[in-house]
Amino acid sequence: MTKEQLVIEIERLLKEPSEKPQFNVCDRLPCKNGGFCKPIGTSDYSCECPQNTTGVNCEKVLVCTLNTCPINAECSISNYQILCTCKHGYVKNQTECEPYDECEHRKPCQNGGKCISLQAAAAVDVTSKLYRCECPRHTTGENCEVVLQCTPTSCSNNANCFVDNHQINCVCKSGFATDDQGDCTVKIRQAHVWGEPHYTTFDGLQYDYQGTCPYTLTKPCNYDIDPKFSIRAQNKVYNFDKRVSVVTWVELTIYGHTFKVHENLTLIVDGTIVSVPYQLFIPGDDKWKVKADISSGQMRITTREHIGKF
């Protein structure tokens, strides 16, 4: 390099600014307690702090102590701050947590229900309710909100409906009993007449009536029974021996008609001999009311209500 070239190079170096060494502000570890430092330009920074710390440099550690929150409050740390939350069954009133009486404030029980506070239980079990309702007998539901009422469809036919003990109850009317399907059907009881003649009553007692007058086998004791009916039997002297008699006919009266079955299996309806099988229909009803047939040498008369089968 010539002398002139050397002078030019020196002048060039003197004119160019010298490069300063690079410096990272986060190298000084300004963020405390596990905070993450993010440089801002070449001279500033910011700290991303853990949830349990606060401050510019995460220098303040948030800690729940016994005295951090008021009585009946629970302490927690979230979003870089200490939170005090009233326990189950308590409500915040300024800086305190006071018992919350849901019965007094919300009055949840309806239709005359009585509200019972469960504050003591709620303080022990956070899943428990703060109240319960003592409901009138004609209501139900958690808040007595359902009023129970009997409607035409509440019970099956032949049943009386009433409301008691927070439920709709169905009781079969007199003369009816609950079957396997829960419906009220005619209560079936059996009495028997046979031989010379022997009578077995509905309650299982046995009698031998040798007289030749008509005997009433059964009829309703209650005039409210519908349909009204009666069954009678007539004895006659057997083999000219007045000490012995046998049944000569049985008579069913129902729906205003009389059905008399004689010992020779003759059926007389309202005084007229009819052929068997036989069915009686009532005007305005397309279903039979009484039918008669012969099976295994016996006359059988059946009603829709199962009254009289012989």
UniProtKB/TrEMBL annotation:
InterPro entries: EGF, NOTCH_homolog, VWF_type-D. Residues 22-59, 99-145 form the EGF-like domain. It holds the Pfam family VWD. Signal peptide: none annotated. This is Uncharacterized protein. Keywords: Disulfide bond, EGF-like domain. The keyword Disulfide bond applies. Disulfide bonds join C49-C58, C135-C144. It comes from the Eukaryota. Residues 189-310 form the VWFD domain.
